[in-house]
Records
---
Amino acid sequence: MPPEKSGLLQGTLDMLILKVVALGPIHGYGISQRIRQISQEVLQVQQGSLYPALHRLQKRGWLHAAWGESENGRQAKFYSLSPKGRRQLAAETSNWNRLAMAVMLILEAAQ
Amino acid sequence: MPPEKSGLLQGTLDMLILKVVALGPIHGYGISQRIRQISQEVLQVQQGSLYPALHRLQKRGWLHAAWGESENGRQAKFYSLSPKGRRQLAAETSNWNRLAMAVMLILEAAQ
DNA sequence: GCGCGTCTCCTAGATAATCTACATATTAAG
DNA sequence: CTTAATATGTAGATTATCTAGGAGACGCGC
């Protein structure tokens, strides 16, 4: 039963990445740390999910990537949000809100 | 791009079904209607998702099924929640709350 | 009596996201 | 000198959900 060990809600990864990148240019490894940190250790992005997702988002023109130097002086690929990515983030966020509210309506339905 | 046409948040269907069944015995077709209705048309469960899910939940011992007669006098399979199913619903609900709160933390992170 | 929409069940195959597990290189710390 | 952390990546498995079918029964309008 993998659902309970899942560190993510399926379908939210793209949105989470876009949001974190929207806070400022950041490299892949940093994105996963930031998501963990902001979510207080609740959300954990596996590397096997992270990198394919980054490539996917880049391919769709939502992220731009450029090699640079990390805080520790290492080579790292820094991602930033394109205008298209910004629009996508807005769309996904509003969709998430609609759906999450709807789920809560069900969960709070009178016993 | 299927994410925006999705009538569901991936991974929540089992929980939604368990919750609706927890409100009282109900047949499959009724479950999908009820989810749509309570969610104010936001959540839409396709039949191709619904029936496999019901069989899955039954197989895991969370639901019990029995043939009966619907409100319209037709043959319908009525589902009810087993004790195991009740525990599962509680677990999934608390997990959902944890994850949904964490997602919101990210989405509300300072710009 | 016919056709149509709705109710109610079902399955097969496609799609796509995420995970596990692996591989690699560099640096810091012990 | 070896382990942990930083940083990137891929291949293959798993699994949920969707699309697109099929089927039977009932009620209603004509």
---
Amino acid sequence: MSLTKSERIKVASAARREQQKGDLQSTILEAATHLFEENGYENFSLRQVALAIGYTPTTIYLYFKDKDDLLLHVAYDGFRLFGESLENAYATKPEPSERLDAVGWAYFDFAMSHPIHYQLMFMQRAEFLACKPEGYESTMDNSFGILERIVQEGIDSGLITPGDVRTYSALIWASVHGVVSLALTGNLLTYEEAKGLFALQQEAVHRAFFEHSK
Amino acid sequence: MSLTKSERIKVASAARREQQKGDLQSTILEAATHLFEENGYENFSLRQVALAIGYTPTTIYLYFKDKDDLLLHVAYDGFRLFGESLENAYATKPEPSERLDAVGWAYFDFAMSHPIHYQLMFMQRAEFLACKPEGYESTMDNSFGILERIVQEGIDSGLITPGDVRTYSALIWASVHGVVSLALTGNLLTYEEAKGLFALQQEAVHRAFFEHSK
Amino acid sequence: MSLTKSERIKVASAARREQQKGDLQSTILEAATHLFEENGYENFSLRQVALAIGYTPTTIYLYFKDKDDLLLHVAYDGFRLFGESLENAYATKPEPSERLDAVGWAYFDFAMSHPIHYQLMFMQRAEFLACKPEGYESTMDNSFGILERIVQEGIDSGLITPGDVRTYSALIWASVHGVVSLALTGNLLTYEEAKGLFALQQEAVHRAFFEHSK
Amino acid sequence: MSLTKSERIKVASAARREQQKGDLQSTILEAATHLFEENGYENFSLRQVALAIGYTPTTIYLYFKDKDDLLLHVAYDGFRLFGESLENAYATKPEPSERLDAVGWAYFDFAMSHPIHYQLMFMQRAEFLACKPEGYESTMDNSFGILERIVQEGIDSGLITPGDVRTYSALIWASVHGVVSLALTGNLLTYEEAKGLFALQQEAVHRAFFEHSK
DNA sequence: TATGAATGAGTATTCATTCAT
DNA sequence: AATGAATGAATACTCATTCAT
């Protein structure tokens, strides 16, 4: 395009403001999330976010400390959604075994429908797991916590051989993360293959932990 | 130092040429690999590679199509080393069960001692798995092939319940990849924790596949 | 901290208002002076001043025309303090010769204990000497005036060879300024060296002007 | 102007190359020096230098490490010229006393005809005195050295009371620097006033050091 | 085979300032 | 009297890449 930088900004600037219902912070966050999912981690830039919403790059600094802060918020929106999905899945079933199953599939579904997000959260910037931007609850702890809760429930009800809850949970997590992350990188697996694999993985986890429940 | 970029290149240019025994392609590749492991994926740049070996950035284009091509070769060196490690491990044992164990630990060791490489190969640019640069054999297929070979041997000798070899192998791979990739991202696990987890994972895999071998 | 700029302002905004006894103009000026002495001329910014006192940058424009105006006032506070120091030194002694000595050392001490200020006043923005912001008396004239007064007194009492008072004063000023400004720039002299040099300079000035007083 | 950034560059780019006789390094340095003298220390920017010579900002980095390195070279060109002027003045006279006089006026003349340079060298970035970019001799040491040489000669020939050569020299330097730097900052003195003052200063220095030579 | 010279696009960030409220 | 929202311009710097030689 043969438009000056400022011209391009003005054009975009015209087309905005109507969609600017909520506050700008949300607008930025949405745009950022969208662009992030479109361009991936490496090509994500503040400038593009600004351009996309028709504001000056400077403006973003009024709502987010810096690029990383914005990215952290993008990630955290993922954590929240992720946590909610798992929580919902957990709530749909009464039994530890079924719960593990449901939560597992919720995990899988989240990863498959928000692949870029999943990668940001668990593969590229996993250290975000440790930060909590203001106004957010630590949903990650909750997410992993669900797993631990289920395992504990399993042990309490005699379905799972007693052992270190944290280790058990980590093992389960690693299992599902393995399939999922393979599925997400490099088109190694089709969705169907990934699904089939995950189903087997789930079975294996169940067999490993709930064997004597039969 | 207060040296211009071009000056710095000249300085480096002086100190080279003697180590330039083999052809330049290898020299570049080695330097690239080294710098890549040092700086990581995001901070890897052609200029630094050029600087490191005392050549102009331009020169690199005589041997590699572009940055990505160079990176592909870096990855492939990883695949070759990876393949050899697994192959060696395989060769040390006669039994399928032991072989799976040995190969698994070789896998773990490779990932832990070449974390950046592992991430490039299997997490960041896993699509490289599908490309084969000229002059390379598809060593990846070989690597995954080892797994398939072991599984097939297990089935043949009646230790593993017959089934889809490819699926079985993928399942095993996903399991180990899960622990390893968790261990590599974001300081979520210490080396010791990762090792412990991997041991458990190995056990689980064995139980799942070789259960009736006892 | 991961606080947005506007958030940080709000936080600061909370903790203020109690210290805001006098009018805001003074508060701003104090903070500006402080920050200026801390960060130096080049890194002095309105935003930081605003942040420091818990007000919006905009607010500063209600009390000062622009950045330069604020800086001018900062400088003028320096001039006032400077003038007072010299005046005090002058008052401590009855004799022209002693007065010159005392005033000289007051000059030196001011420069050494307010180096950033001295540089602003006499080296970076010496044109400020010519401006008088509203509500200020031209204290600079007073400062230089002291010198002229002393010289005049010296001439009147026969201690100094009659001559152009203004020129004599300028000469003296240049002498002390020479040592002081060398001492302030670039770590060329230690404090002790500067002090020694200044003492010699003072002697030279005395010899030059009060020679026949003995 | 309503020109795109790249358009403006191209326009300038057209008008160059003919003046580009020597190598680009010199061209850049000249332009930098010119712009520096025009805009002063604070408004000196790499972009403008690039624009001025019709090259991309990037190009400058091929010849200078960074902004400061360029500035250092600008300063050093000043030091060289300065040193040569003093050296020449020194060479014109056989006698210490005359030499001091000649060198003093050379000093004054340099400062008056390269005011911005003088400020960079001795007032803003006096720490440059300590650095020597490659390919340059430390001309500053030489410059101050001339002073010391003269003083030593004066002592040797019995014209100057024996004493610490370095201190004597520093004292003289401070004296001339005092007048000069006053003259350069803030339009406090006209050229004529400065000149008159300097003449007096010179006299004073002579009287102080060569008194008994008569 | 290799270089030297140069580009163009892009990056995050900071600043003084304005305007409507 | 003070703010919130936003701007526009600028900055240093780095990168992959190309082209003529």
